[in-house]
Every structure is written in structure tokens, then in C-alpha cells.
Amino acid sequence: MKFYSTNRQSPPVTLREAVMNGLAADGGLYMPERIPVIPRAFFNNISGMGIRDIAFVVADMMLGDDIESTEIRQIVNDTFSFEIPLVKVDKDISALELYHGPTLAFKDVGARFLARVISHYSASGGGGKGKVKVIVATSGDSGGAVAAGFKDVPGVEVYIMYPSGRLSRMQREQLDVPGGSVHAIEVLGTFDDCQRLAKQAFCDADLRREYEITSANSINICRLLPQMFYFFHAYASLLSSEGDSRCEVVMAVPSGNLGNLTAGLLAWRMGLPVKRFVVANNVNDVTVDYLNTGRFVPRRAVKTLACAMDVGNPSNVSRINDLFGGDFGPLSRLIKGYSYSDEDIMGWISRTYSADGYLLDPHGATAYAALHADIKPGEKGIFLATAHPSKFSRTVEEATGVKLGTLPQAEPSHRPVHPRISVSYEALKKILMSENNS
Ligand SMILES: *Cc1c(COP(=O)(O)O)cnc(C)c1O
């Protein structure tokens, strides 16, 4: 399988190149040249299948030309080392709890899969260059997931940039993992600034001469592909709990960079019977505006309670447009959008706990609210619960009165100080070029 750039100014590449390049040379994002369609028969039996078996079938169809099936099986099994239950919240709506992994957020799935694919490729020959360097910008949860996903992968140095003051204490502490190969960098700017610096690093010829540079952001195709698996798994779980294969399914996605939505759309193109997708934004609702008006207008992100969705220029928009051949009509019919203020988010967390006894985190809350607004009689809704409520214990407690135990924290004296840089590529480059010890 080849992967093309959404900008179409660089030639299609192999899976290995797509994974290691992260971003195409023309600044575009990689997409699979073919989207295989799964035979209908698969969906007749899917309700009895576990997530690892489902993931293997889907992954083998996508990546089977490039990676041996036994290796794919191993990567998939290692990726899904935790449960992803579908939990009924009310009569027609269920939560897909993606947050039972090591850093309590869905980004564990993509990070674990990507780390294992990169490890597979660096073990099978690094092309004579120095170490593989992974560069990632995080607005919240992806940093910790990447840190945890890579900490045991040999031969790979990881650099994680985060916007100063925008991470919760737990999110920041999750960047500090043992081993010394994961480096956190505090950037005096926004997430979009971090993302821009990361993109500059990929395009830096000096750096590329010395190292094999790759990205672990949601722009990396191997972060995205494994996120398809749980859309199939959600459908399978719904069928097995409803015992009815004719239900019409609507899936809601709390969105920032639109990685999850893109993965859901890929699953749909592979044949997953989803009737409609619903996108939920916080007040950084560039995507919702786009769905309503057909005009995509990036803007500066502001801070909200659902901080992992504080994105002003969602990077996967080009992939989504590409999936529809740039045709806005069908896109806007398949995907509906809703946005929510912090006040709305508090209200939904509070109400859902009193009405259904279910604890939402601020991100999942937006998707639950959007599904409520959009679902029609006779339909079944699934929303992605992307982070564990205990990651946002203060907000959840304020909304519900429920005290959630926070996770154990590192001793203050052991907490490393992260280098702090202004929004300057030169400053980043200095760190990238110097940290080649070990
Ligand atoms: C990253 C993140 C999101 C946004 O996901 P995208 O795929 O970037 O749209 C939503 N919720 C949580 C908890 C996240 O960490």
C-alpha cells in the first residue's frame, strides 16, 4: 500500500516512509492510496469478536502488504493491553470508554501502536543515520501517551513540546517517565505555536541529515490508523448488547485536531455501518463553523475546561476534505457539528450524573451533549469518552460533588525542570541538536 500527500506535491511513499516522515515534504498529510472495503459477511459475525481480533482483521487489510501478519498480530495485541468497554449511559446512548490505558486517555491507543511500528522499522535497519528522533506537540493528553508509549522502545529519543500553563498538573507530570529518552519542552506560546515548531523541525534539512526525524502527533498516519479499530469494536459491542443487527448507529466524537473523526470516517469508508457522525467542539469551534458554513477559518485557540480540544487550526481537515474529494455537500450531510461553552460542559457533567449516575469528563461531556441534540427516535448513539474523569477531578467534583482520588504524584524534589523556550525555531533546534547523548 502506498500513501499519498494531501497536498499532492510530493510523490506517494511506502508505509515506512509515511511513518518516519510524519508529514509529507510538501507539508501535506499522508493518506492511504486505497481504502479496502471489508466484506459484508464480516459485520454479520462482528458482535462475537474481541477488539484484538477485529483490529487484526482491519490492520491486516490496510498494512498486510508492508508488515508480516504475525508482526501485525503482535503489534495489535501489545497495543490493546487494556479494556475498551461500551457502557450504557441512558436508553439510547452509550459511552465508548477509551480511557483505561496507562495515561487514562484514548491517545494511548495511537501512541502505543505508533511506538511499536516505529520500533519495528528501526529494528529492521535505520538507514545508516543516527538515532530516530520523535517530535511531538501536545495540547494535553497526547504528550503523556507518547511518553508512556515510547519509554520502553530502544533507539528512539522523544521530544514533547507543550504550551506553557495549558496543561493540568497530571498531564504535565505524565511527561516525566523513567529512562531518560523522553524530553519535555515548555513553550511560551499556544498549542498551535508548538505544532508550527514541530512542522518546522520536520522540514529542516540540517536536522534530517543528522537524524531520522519523525512525528508522534495525530498527523502521523500510524497514530490515526489504530483509532479506526475501536470504531469497529464499538459497533460490535453495541450489536452484542442490543441483540439487534438492524439498529441505525450515530457516532459522536469530541474533537480538536480531528484525528478521531478522520479515523471514524476511514472506518466508515471501509464499510462500517454508521449512519451519521456528530462532531462536538468546545468554544474553539472552527470545525463546527466549517460544517455549518463551508468556510474553514482557523483562529487563535482559547483555554477551556476541555483543554485537549483547544485547537484553533485542526490539522486533519485536509484529510477529511480529501476523503470527500473536496465535495462539501456529502461531507456536511454525513457530519453534524455542535459546540459547547465551559458553562454548558459543567451543566452536562452535573445533569448526567444526577439523571443517570454516569460520570463524564469535560471532553466526553461535549460529545454526549451533541449526541443528545442530534439523535433521532429509533437511532442508537455511541460517543467517544476520551479521558478518564479523574484526569479532570477538580472540574468533575465542582459539577457533581463527587470526589475522585487523584493519582499518586511524583515527589516534588524528583520532578525534573523542563527547558523553557520562546516560540522560536532556533531555540528548539538547539535542544534537538544537543540532546544526542546516550
Ligand atoms: C486529543 C483529545 C481530544 C481531541 O481528539 P482529536 O482526535 O485531536 O480530535 C479529545 N479528548 C481528549 C481527552 C483528548 O486528549
Could you characterize the architecture of this molecule?
- The longest helix has 22 residues, at 221-242.
- Helix 7 links the parallel strand 6 and strand 7.
- The chain starts with a strand and ends with a helix.
- It has 18 helices and 13 strands.
- By secondary structure, the protein is α/β, with parallel strands linked by helices.
- The model has no long low-confidence stretch (mean pLDDT 92).
- The strands form three sheets. Strands 3-4-12-9-10-11 form a six-stranded mixed β-sheet, with helices on both faces.
- Helices cover 43% and strands 15% of the residues.
- The protein binds pyridoxal-5'-phosphate.
- Pyridoxal-5'-phosphate is lined by residues 105, 107, 140-142, 218, 254-260, 308-309, 363, 386-387.
Spell out the blueprint of helices and strands.
Blueprint: E1 3-5, H1 15-21, E2 30-32, H2 40-45, H3 51-63, H4 69-79, E3 86-88, E4 93-97, H5 107-123, E5 132-137, H6 141-150, E6 156-163, H7 169-173, E7 182-187, H8 191-202, H9 205-210, E8 212-215, H10 221-242, E9 248-254, H11 259-269, E10 276-281, H12 286-293, H13 317-323, H14 328-334, E11 335-339, H15 342-356, H16 362-374, E12 379-385, H17 393-400, E13 420-421, H18 425-434
Parallel strand pairs: 4-12, 5-6, 5-8, 6-7, 7-13, 9-10, 9-12, 10-11
Antiparallel strand pairs: 1-2, 3-4
Bound molecules: pyridoxal-5'-phosphate.
In short:
This protein has 438 residues and is α/β, with parallel strands linked by helices. The chain has helices at residues 15-21, 40-45, 51-63, 69-79, 107-123, 141-150, 169-173, 191-202, 205-210, 221-242, 259-269, 286-293, 317-323, 328-334, 342-356, 362-374, 393-400, 425-434; strands at residues 3-5, 30-32, 86-88, 93-97, 132-137, 156-163, 182-187, 212-215, 248-254, 276-281, 335-339, 379-385, 420-421.
